[in-house]
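Action item from last meeting closed. Structure (339 res):
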């Protein structure tokens, strides 16, 4: 017999209607607009990761917390329940049962002892407590990762992708940002569960290549600078060879720019201490994926071995973002959920 559910908090997850969007059509449109897509995705991802780092100063700790909270939202979904953003953050505590450090380690590809250390640090900071094989987040712990800024960022990102798709008969009208935001607020645990299912593998893919996410953030600022200048160049030169989406990173990393970005600017943008940024830059130079010019500014190189995996990840990420957008658009347009 299933557990009783409080009538006040009982929210049934509605099924998506039969007319679901085709993920490959969404992906096809991202590919056809690859420059504008990566302009919006890169800007969104940079703002989100900078905000996350500023809150924790430790990405491994943040990923562990994301994983645990995701499991709680998944447990709600498994019971066909959801909570609005206010209902979730009004909870005094949330309990995640049957925590297994080995399974967390395997899924996140982070050593078990690192997982244990990060959980202990979260406990010492008063964000969670352990009770046997269960973990309990208190109100302070939940509010610590309340996505106030990300709510705006994600609503804007989804709106821009909606604008991109509105010319297709199968998609229909574009969505307004305020309507998207209202939808996320009302069906928060459903949408944010899907968002974390996008972000956790995304971060792990980059961690596996760069050894840690701080190094990836440093590299990312250099890559975004190249991407910006490539976009500017293509907008000025309307007649140009079409960029194949599978070779997008190759085009970015091979694009010649006059000015790069210096260590101080990377530190200011990412919130990573300058001394740490310099250490990460040295590692990236040893991998032959960046170079330093006469002005002490850093630019991409396409020679390093890990560039092959970076390029593969770029293709995987395109598909993952298309999956996420397809699900979100189905929730908003093709389900029984109402704003």
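Sequence:
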């Amino acid at each position: 017999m299933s557990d009783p559910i409080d009538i006040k908090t009982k929210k049934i997850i509605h099924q998506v209607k039969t007319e679901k969007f085709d993920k490959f059509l969404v992906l096809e449109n991202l590919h056809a607009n690859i420059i504008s897509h990566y302009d919006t995705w890169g800007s969104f991802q940079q703002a989100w990761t900078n905000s996350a780092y500023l809150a924790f100063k430790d990405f491994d700790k943040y990923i562990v917390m994301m994983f645990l909270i995701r499991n709680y939202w998944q447990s709600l979904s498994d019971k066909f329940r959801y909570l609005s953003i206010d209902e979730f953050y009004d909870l005094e505590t949330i309990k995640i049962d049957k925590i297994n450090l080995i399974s967390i380690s395997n899924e996140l590809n982070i050593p078990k002892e690192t997982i244990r250390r990060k959980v202990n640090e979260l406990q010492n900071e008063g964000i969670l407590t352990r009770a046997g094989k269960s973990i309990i987040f208190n109100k302070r712990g939940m509010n610590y990762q309340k996505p106030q800024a990300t709510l705006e960022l994600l609503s804007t990102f989804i709106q821009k992708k909606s604008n991109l798709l509105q010319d297709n008969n199968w998609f229909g009208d574009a969505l307004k940002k305020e309507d998207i935001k209202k939808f996320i607020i009302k069906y928060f645990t459903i949408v944010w569960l899907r968002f974390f299912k996008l972000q956790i593998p995304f971060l792990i893919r980059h961690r596996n290549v760069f050894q840690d996410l701080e190094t990836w953030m440093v590299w990312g600022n250099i890559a975004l600078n190249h991407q910006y200048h490539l976009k500017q160049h293509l907008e000025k030169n309307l007649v140009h060879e079409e960029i194949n989406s599978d070779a997008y990173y190759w085009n970015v990393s091979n694009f010649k720019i006059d000015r790069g970005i210096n260590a101080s600017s990377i530190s200011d943008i990412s919130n990573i201490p300058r001394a740490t940024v310099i250490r990460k830059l040295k590692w990236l130079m040893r991998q032959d994926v960046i170079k330093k010019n006469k002005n002490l500014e850093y630019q991409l190189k396409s020679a390093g071995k890990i560039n092959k995996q970076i390029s593969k990840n770029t293709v995987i990420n395109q598909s993952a973002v298309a999956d996420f957008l397809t699900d979100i658009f189905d929730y908003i347009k093709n389900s029984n959920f109402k704003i």
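Note appended to the action item: Confidence is low (pLDDT under 50) at residues 1-9.
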